[in-house]
Specification:
Rossmann fold; transcription (chains A, B); DNA-binding; alpha/beta; 3 domains; homodimer; 12 strands; Peripla_BP_I (chains A, B); LacI family transcriptional regulator (chains A, B); 4-stranded parallel beta sheet; 434 Repressor (Amino-terminal Domain); elongated; transcription cis-regulatory region binding (chains A, B)
Chain lengths: 341, 341
Amino acid sequence: MREITLKEIAETLGISITTVSKALKNYPDVSEKTRKSVIALAEKLQYTPNSFAVNLRTKESKTIGLIIPEVVHHFFSNVINGIIAQAEKNGYLVIILQSNESLELEKKQVELLINKRVDGILMSLSNDSNDENHIKEILNRKIPFVQFDKISKLIPSSKVIINDQRAAMDAVQHLINKGCKKIAHIRGPINPQNAIDRFLGYKKTLEKNDIPFDSKLVYTCTHVTFEEGVEFAKQIIEEHPDVDGIFVITDLVAVGVLAHFNEKNIPVPNQIAVIGFSNWFMSQVINPKLSTVDQPSYEMGVAAFNLLLEEMICHKDALPFKPRTVELGTNIIERESTLRK
Amino acid sequence: MREITLKEIAETLGISITTVSKALKNYPDVSEKTRKSVIALAEKLQYTPNSFAVNLRTKESKTIGLIIPEVVHHFFSNVINGIIAQAEKNGYLVIILQSNESLELEKKQVELLINKRVDGILMSLSNDSNDENHIKEILNRKIPFVQFDKISKLIPSSKVIINDQRAAMDAVQHLINKGCKKIAHIRGPINPQNAIDRFLGYKKTLEKNDIPFDSKLVYTCTHVTFEEGVEFAKQIIEEHPDVDGIFVITDLVAVGVLAHFNEKNIPVPNQIAVIGFSNWFMSQVINPKLSTVDQPSYEMGVAAFNLLLEEMICHKDALPFKPRTVELGTNIIERESTLRK
DNA sequence: AATACTATCGAAAACGTTTTCGAAATTACC
DNA sequence: GGTAATTTCGAAAACGTTTTCGATAGTATT
């Protein structure tokens, strides 16, 4: 069985390729009679347009690229979920690549996607992205581009973010409202904007409440793992036994903290309250249940695609497009790990 | 700035498009001198071939499709990881779609990928895939196709699986070796082959050890959630208070079981031992740490892509290809939840 | 000097679609 | 009956690449 083409249909019907194409695309200048016969035959033969030819002709592939630090991550896999769903709803497919938090890989993958001529690129930066030349290249080529979650403020593109600083302020204020007087912070790596913002939110909230900021109470993750949570929990208890609250960069690390405290029989939340970030599924399963900041991951994927779509449409029609930033809301979720009397 | 094409290079160099193309692809019938000049200019202009045109001409896109039940799932996201990595290593990109365990969506997505003319398709079936017509369509069109994890034995394609029955036998035997006499099973949904196989493994192992099989001790998940684990744990305790071991279809559900037992202060493993399946990251974090069956997810992705690649190469060269099945090994991981004295 | 062979190049077709533009045929209008 | 307007169609170009096959020029062989 060979491929069905417009030519094939045209020949069996004794008409031109042009007319067949027009009939299938509802052009007005083809009679009702021929349109019907074309559509009938096309359905009978199960004709589907050769997408390679369509791509070449229309210069678009209805495919977008997505680069994220890692797929195996509850937050990102939820974002992926939202992106795929929204893309599919709008007739787009998604090619996914992961940078494994490596700038080198990230660069290579941007190049892959550019060469593939995807219609647009969605991206969350890797932690050691301090060089932006590869991103500039995307913008130079006028490829529609949207950043989400881990973004660089230096790059003039659309962005989807949460207000990390405000969310962190909410979290720390929550601890203070629960009576915490000496609050430690386990922060993310140096580079990423959201780790910086959460740290700033922590610091500001202390100051606002007349609690002195002490840089010794800040612990910096390098790999953001469960094990780091365990290790920092241990250090905090040893170095600052009077700490009564911890704000942790993300739930995974916070769960590590809880695990250590459980093992050492340190009562949470009564001796130390703990609040995490991003409302990982697991945080409501662990004991004690972890209070956290809910971060709308699926919605972030949807919003990111929507922004990209807008830009792709403008790009196609050669209209100007002004980058926009969408900021999504967050909520404190109070569970057992901050439920002090 | 406009797109650089072969024509552009040819004109500035005063030679034909043919020669430029050949020079860049190292054809033997172009002189060293012209080859050098072509390559030099191509690099200077940053020429990259228009992939749309290449696709049309070569009838391949170096892109494969992947359909899985859900992205947000520790096992599948690890498989995705392996597939993407191995594909990239071999010059392929991956389009990911998720069926959300819906046959309807699955059918639509197969159609999307066929129309997109991907070079091959990788797939793990959704739970209610009892109709195979859409898969047959893939095979009819001779599109390279590999199933993994959740497969249908009725479909003659390459497959990557684990030996679910044997793995289940190992797990149940482990419980028996630990002294369990009355073992319940929380099984997966009716349809999927691996749920069936694990159930059969459970049943056979009981028989082999002269423990009577009792269908009342088998509980069937419909959605395979944490909540189902909680609920079934409750039922088991109420209906069969003398059960001393449970083999659970997957870790997520097993964690639900442990959560309920923790709440009710039922000692695990001493009153009831629990073993899960697939070595979720979380199972070593929960208290008590969950014994489980380790399932090589990343490796499964790599193996699936490798099989697909073999088939794609044969397909391109019009060579015959015989479907193969790769079976990956599993290991019992003994942790606290089965550590009885 | 005629022949055979090699090295180097390019014309042209092909992949299958979309879209412009003009031609032909039909209908409407005065 | 003549002109104008409308309807319906198709030729052809274009998208950018790959590859076949033939042509030309130069070199080597008798």
